[in-house]
Specification:
The protein is mainly alpha-helical. The chain has helices at 10-16, 42-66, 74-94, 98-116, 130-152, 155-159, 168-203, 212-242, and strands spanning 27-33, 36-41. The termini are far apart.
């Protein structure tokens, strides 16, 4: 096969019927490390760009806040309002435990939100890769288990056998199902938006690509991205808080 479709994975060919539909992860550079073949792919590049954007926004906000103005400027007001809103949300959800997890929750949600909306800037959202969402969910899982052990000590083992010893396998599976379900929820929703927008750009005539994709980006990238960020953040805070003993 020739043309642009020749380099596409088989799945893209089946979905497109030969059209150039491409929402897959591509490898740009491969190298050997300790006998394993590793690659620099689309997700890695997008993740680095998102992190650089986030870092740049943080430096810009810090620079503006550190300025000595007679009156706060627009940037200072916006940053203070955002931080106060996020602090309030974490404190409402986690109560007395908020100070220990505030920085993690805000950083986590900021990264997920920028990743989710990166499609607006022509990137393939890092959160449309299960490897990214599962890694985020694993970090949250460690936080959850840490809270459980810190709060209950060795008694956390006893909790696995309640309400009856026969429930031990169910309780263990339930614990390990948490990162899987959280990562799949975020991954599935973001990937669905990526696929829908790719299909629209690739399969439909040129005249329906004028203006209409803007509304699709608003919904799939901005609106849905914000909702999924909120859901992941709220689940993280809820699961962690529930592990602390009353």
């Amino acid at each position: 096969m020739g043309g642009a479709a020749a380099g596409l994975p088989a799945g893209a060919m089946l979905l497109s019927g030969g059209a150039d539909v491409d929402f897959f992860i591509h490898s740009y550079y491969e190298f050997e490390l300790f006998g394993q073949t590793l690659s620099i792919n689309t997700t890695m590049i997008s993740t680095v760009i998102v992190c650089l954007i986030l870092f740049g926004l943080i430096l810009f906000a810090r620079h503006e806040i550190m300025k000595d103005y007679d009156e706060p400027n627009a940037v200072q007001n916006a940053v203070e309002m955002l931080v106060e809103t996020m602090d309030g949300m974490v404190e409402t959800s986690m109560g007395s435990h908020a100070p220990k997890y505030r920085n993690y929750i805000i950083t986590l949600m900021a990264f997920i939100f920028l990743s989710n909306i990166s499609g607006v800037f022509g990137l393939r959202a890092p959160t449309a890769d299960f490897g990214t969402t599962f890694a985020l969910a694993l970090i949250t899982f460690v936080m959850i288990e840490y809270a459980w052990i810190k709060s209950n000590g060795i008694r956390f083992v006893k909790d696995l056998f309640e309400p009856f010893p026969i429930f031990f396998p169910v309780n263990v599976i339930s614990e390990f199902a948490t990162p899987v379900s959280m990562s799949l929820r975020l991954f599935g929703n973001v990937l669905a938006g990526t696929i829908m927008i790719s299909l629209w750009y690739s399969l439909l005539p040129w005249f329906v690509k004028l203006g209409i994709p803007s509304f699709l980006h608003v919904y799939f990238d901005l609106f849905s991205g914000a909702i999924q960020t909120y859901v992941f953040g709220m689940l993280t805070m809820t699961f962690i808080t529930d592990k602390y003993a009353d």
